[in-house]
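lol forgot to send this yesterday, sorry. struct tokens for the thing we talked abt
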């Protein structure tokens, strides 16, 4: 099977693992948050990898940089949702730390 260029990127691979972790984590969120923070954190975390993938299909450095900037912004949005989830006791301190460390692993690199 052919691998597209984004699939070879470590940052995309790590963000994909992170998305799966977010999806597993939000299963335990309250049902009344289904269309609130649960939806928001799923969409923002998915947007990280999606924009990395989309950026690799662009022909100019400027376009590629634009999509990486959007990806970074989505990572910061996701971090904000994680902080709020911890503040609302939807996730434990330990779950927050684990997710934050995973996010930092590929955002800071």
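and heres what i got for the seq, position by position
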């Amino acid at each position: 099977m052919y691998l597209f260029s984004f699939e070879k990127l470590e940052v995309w691979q790590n963000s994909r693992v992170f998305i799966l972790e977010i999806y597993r984590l939000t299963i335990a969120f309250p049902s009344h948050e289904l269309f609130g923070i649960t939806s928001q954190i799923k969409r923002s975390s998915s947007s990280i990898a999606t924009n990395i993938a989309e950026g690799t299909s662009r022909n100019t450095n400027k376009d590629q940089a634009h999509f990486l900037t959007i990806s970074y912004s989505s990572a910061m949005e996701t971090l904000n949702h994680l902080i709020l989830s911890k503040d609302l006791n939807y996730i434990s301190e330990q779950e927050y730390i684990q997710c934050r460390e995973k996010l930092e692993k590929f955002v800071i690199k």
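The chain has a mean pLDDT of 97. anyway ping me if u want another try
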